[in-house]
Design the sequence.
């Protein structure tokens, strides 16, 4: 991970409203189904403001969550009853240590793409292995690289433009610059919003690591985990030319 990966206050503040529009919800339904099929405790890595976590908790899941961002955890705790505050904490997956094992660990919405080096990726996979019950599963997703963006990058593109409060407008622009040798996209998100009769502009820059299918297979084989499968969508179909996401399912052997 990179120090800029931590959500700045303004990005965390607008996270729920922007991603309610940007995300399709397919991933949320997928992970909630996996959680509902799990007997035992669940851990969400990169729990954020609780997009999946809160619904899982309402379903009766014994779910816990970690996130690298204190601000995101603060927002999530504000949505929780105090009796459930113990379920979430600030922690880096590379140093995962929560003192228990889980039947299922998930890392939704490209959390794994914030791990830039093979060293960090393997360290995280092995920490996750140590926190799984025998037979327990780890599921994560990353985006399928768009070759056009890898060559040309992405210019400023508006991906949110609406009121965040009555009479107050928020616009978000996203752009990306490719770094082929380091296999990363350097993303910039610019937030422009109205507040107290002012126009406020803030930028957040961060790198995202992209992965190819067989690279993911090789990475899992180098870790302590066993690969169950790599899928091309949240219906668990085989990857094809139309795939936008890789869904990776691993397990700890019995």
Sequence:
């Amino acid at each position: 991970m990179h120090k800029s990966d931590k959500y700045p206050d303004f990005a965390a503040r607008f996270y729920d409203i922007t991603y309610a529009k940007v995300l399709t919800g397919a991933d949320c339904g997928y992970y909630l189904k996996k959680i509902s099929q799990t007997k035992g405790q669940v851990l969400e890595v990169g729990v954020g403001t609780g997009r999946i976590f809160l619904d899982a908790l309402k379903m009766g899941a014994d779910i816990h969550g970690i996130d690298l961002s204190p601000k995101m955890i603060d927002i999530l705790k504000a949505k929780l009853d105090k009796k459930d505050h113990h379920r979430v904490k600030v922690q880096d997956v590379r140093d995962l240590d929560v003192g228990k094992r889980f039947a299922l660990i998930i890392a939704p919405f490209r959390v794994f793409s914030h791990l830039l080096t093979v060293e960090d990726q393997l360290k995280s996979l092995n920490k996750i292995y140590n926190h799984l019950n025998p037979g327990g599963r780890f599921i994560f997703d990353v985006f399928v690289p768009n070759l056009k963006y890898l060559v040309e990058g992405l210019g400023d593109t508006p991906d949110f433009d609406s009121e965040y409060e009555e009479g107050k407008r928020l616009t978000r622009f996203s752009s990306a610059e490719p770094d082929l040798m380091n296999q990363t996209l350097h993303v910039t998100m610019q937030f422009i919003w109205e507040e107290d009769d002012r126009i406020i502009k803030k930028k957040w820059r961060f790198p995202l690591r992209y992965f190819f299918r067989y690279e993911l297979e090789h990475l899992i084989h180098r870790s302590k985990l066993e690969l169950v499968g790599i899928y091309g969508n949240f219906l668990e179909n085989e990857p094809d030319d139309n795939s936008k996401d890789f869904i990776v399912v691993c397990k700890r052997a019995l």
